[in-house]
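Quick one, tokens below:
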């Protein structure tokens, strides 16, 4: 379901870092999980999917490649359920840092922002949080759809990350923006999971950046 352009851009960016632990949020049919596992061979890859439908092709891949100890598929978890999501991260990673996150889930601002706030503090310095398909609010055929009607644009989170890169480069070291995905690079600052909020550090002229529909 991803374009070759998107895959090439993300792999070009992430190939520059050491990747041991991965979180893949929103896996649809599971192709992204198999791709990430083949490319990085991580110690652990936790795939989070809201749907509870069967994913036989992904399960067959895990069995065929003997990756049961490395790839964990967790279904029925919303990215916005930060209590349950946080418990999962605690159980799977403990105090270990996460090096790469791919968010291809709801594409909604609130849900994505909540999971970003939860996972970003747990990431290693130089780790990369990828937000895919952020651009829907710039495209008339999407922002007029029922799914996005009346919702804040996911582009808000992109702008908050860009502004945070100026305000707090120790938290957001770099933001690489493509027309299909955004790569947010983690800085060196120590952050407390559960207390971090990107909306609080993204300020312009001292004021919190207002949201747009």
């Amino acid at each position: 379901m991803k374009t070759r352009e998107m895959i090439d851009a993300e792999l070009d960016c992430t190939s520059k870092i050491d990747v041991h632990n991965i979180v893949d949020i929103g896996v649809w049919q599971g192709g992204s999980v198999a791709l990430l596992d083949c490319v990085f061979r991580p110690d652990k890859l936790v795939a989070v999917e809201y749907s509870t439908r069967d994913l036989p092709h992904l399960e067959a891949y895990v069995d065929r490649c003997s990756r049961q100890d490395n790839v964990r598929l967790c279904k029925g978890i919303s990215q916005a359920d930060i209590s349950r999501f946080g418990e999962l991260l605690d159980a799977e990673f403990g105090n270990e840092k996460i090096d790469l996150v791919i968010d291809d889930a709801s594409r909604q601002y609130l849900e994505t922002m909540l999971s970003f706030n939860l996972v970003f503090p747990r990431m290693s310095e130089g780790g990369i949080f990828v937000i895919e398909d952020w651009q829907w609010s710039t495209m008339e055929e999407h922002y007029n759809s029922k799914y996005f009607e009346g919702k804040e644009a996911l582009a808000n989170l992109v702008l908050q990350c860009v502004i945070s890169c100026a305000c707090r480069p120790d938290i957001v070291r770099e933001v690489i923006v493509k027309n299909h995905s955004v790569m947010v690079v983690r800085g060196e600052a120590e952050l407390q999971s559960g207390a971090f909020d990107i909306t609080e550090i993204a300020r312009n002229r001292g004021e919190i950046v207002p949201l747009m529909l």
